[in-house]
Queue: 2 jobs
Job 1
Amino acid sequence: MSVALHSNVLPISSRVPFPSGRSFEVRRLRRNLQSLLLSHSHFQIVGRDRRVEVAVQAAGVNVEELVILKVATPNLGAMTIICVPSRLSQLPRVLSALLHIKREGKAEGRKMVIVPAAFVHRQPRLSSARAIEDASGFHVSRSNRLAVLEHLLERGQSTLMNCALAVDHPAPFACVLQMVAAGDLKMNLNKRLRPETRIEIARGDSK
């Protein structure tokens, strides 16, 4: 999965407050899912989907054991992500109930995606996403942004280290990762983040 972001994307959302009382497993799953979403600036976290939560509870599944988030993208519009912890994904009753809710939503024109916890926790993608998310709040000056883009325009692609060396910034690696979060650059999240990680200009292609 490469991060490829666009100039007309929705802004990165701030973290959505999480209801108290959930288990550590569910809180961790929620935290990691948000990290994946916030590392891609074309995802905007809208918040909870109370309509889906009510449907889940009515189906006999404890909604506090799931992570349910509504997100928006410029190309796909609004959708709801239902993230299922590993122990629940092995219960046919739970999966059957969620698939039924998904089919009902599709019939009403609403998009839903059921995501297993293993997909969210997968490494090294999660660690890379967390690093990009952490860097998203850094300020990158216009001159540093242009320096990185010019460096890449001359070479087509470069390493994270060489891109960092092209800028005058107190945290040069974070500077480059902020440009990934902002949609200027792309990298492969499925490979471990290293100084040798390949960086390219995001040209509007999808992941």
Job 2
Amino acid sequence: MRFRTICRPQQRSILAVLPAPPQTPPPPFKLCLNRQEGEDVGTSFVRQGLVRDETVMPVAPGDAQEKLLALLSHQGINVEKARQQNQLHLSLGTESPQTMATVIAQTIAAASGPFRLFGDRAWVKERDWSFGAIRELEDMAQAALSADGRLFLCQYPLDRFSGQEAMMAVETHGHTFSKGLLRESPYRSSAN
């Protein structure tokens, strides 16, 4: 999986790419050094799904969603048409991991083909989630990836997450994508 990104040294983000097919290695994790790169990668990920007629679900704070939709429109994606055709499902996140997992499961069930989720995890901070709740959602996401045709990308802006939370993100993903190379992560915890 390749995303073209532009690096600008402003804010730091961590991105996690979670591929879905069963019988594959655990999901990869990508490190990004700034917010702009995160926006570029997230937009590319969502756009690629829409162009491929996949059901796409961005979960992000309102300002990040507005920026994403504007970038997609600028790149020629008819956002309103994608929403009307139930190809694009926007979410601001929910109050609990269980509710978010239910929303994701319902969107997957309604999808007529492949499904991809882009999660700008800054929304969990806006909802004041605890470390345990964030970890619970990551663990639930792993279970949701057990079927073909599912692809998740989770982004953790380092200016909003603690070192413990960033390390949890690293431990819940089986591969690291950095400097154009995909490598098995030595940090993946055995519980995942």
